[in-house]
Specification:
Structural class: alpha/beta
Radius of gyration: 17 Å
Strand content: 15-25%
Mean pLDDT: 91
Distance between the termini: 25 Å
Low-confidence stretches: none
Number of helices: 8
Shape: globular
Largest sheet: 7 strands, mixed
Helix content: 40-55%
């Protein structure tokens, strides 16, 4: 899983490569996301917010927050403080501008940081979210252990991540789209040609469904559930501490 990296000829580690990649594509990212997912990713994030609202958290951490889409959506909750953490300064700068335009600076704080070595005390947040970020962790289990550490007991942890449809013909259609169409879109519209090829490849090898559920249980998370979205092209995972 960690062998898949954005730049195959680079000597940089995965973490450094992912940082460079997201800095490179930060200007294109929001628009391309809407194109690639046909806008359905907006609905997926809304479903994450619905789950988070159920536990009425006061403090929320959004890891791999990118340009802040989910953090901004989470402002709909009654949370008094939302922290967006990301390793890419380029993505964060765009996110800060979006937050400023919406007048949410007092509620959302954007922080540059490493999800596998977070600058927070144990048991800090009532809820933690990650949308399309866990597959970019250099070491998945290390990242999940850090999330477990900073989540309060009984806190809610929600992942939104790509997955692979299991039913015919959706599985074949997804495979064709992800291997051929997605990299082509990225090649045409993004200045970083490797980025969207990496995003496709990393999704194809990442554990999903019960495989990821079992990893969460191994770390110590309880009440683990998964909810496939849109024929299984994405999945929401809910668990607690």
């Amino acid at each position: 899983m960690s062998k898949v990296k954005p730049y195959k000829n680079s000597e940089l580690g995965k973490k450094e490569q992912v940082t460079k990649m997201f800095d490179n594509i930060s200007g294109d990212y929001d628009g391309l996301n809407r194109v690639i997912s046909f806008g359905i990713d907006i609905k997926w994030r809304q479903n994450v917010v619905k789950i988070i609202k159920e536990s009425n958290p006061q403090t929320i951490l959004d890891i791999a927050t990118g340009t802040g889409d989910l953090a901004i959506n989470l402002a709909e909750t009654d949370a008094t403080k939302i922290v967006g953490l990301d390793i890419s300064s380029g993505m964060l700068e765009i996110g800060k501008e979006k937050i400023k335009k919406k007048g949410l600076e007092s509620k959302i704080e954007m922080i540059l940081g490493d999800s596998e070595n977070m600058p927070f005390e144990d048991n800090t947040f009532d809820a933690i979210t990650v949308a399309f970020g866990v597959r970019n962790f250099e070491t998945l289990e290390n990242g999940l252990k850090e999330i477990y550490r900073v989540l309060k007991p009984n806190g809610t942890f929600v992942i939104l991540e790509t997955s692979i449809p299991t039913k015919t013909p959706f599985k074949q259609g997804y495979n064709f789209y992800s291997k051929n169409i997605l990299p082509l879109i990225g090649k045409i519209f993004s200045k970083d040609r490797s980025a969207y090829k990496y995003l496709s490849e990393s999704a194809s090898v990442f554990p999903y469904g019960e495989a990821l559920n079992n990893i969460l249980r191994k770390i110590g998370f309880i009440n683990v559930e998964d909810f496939p979205q849109t024929l299984g092209v994405a999945t929401i995972y809910k668990s607690s501490k």
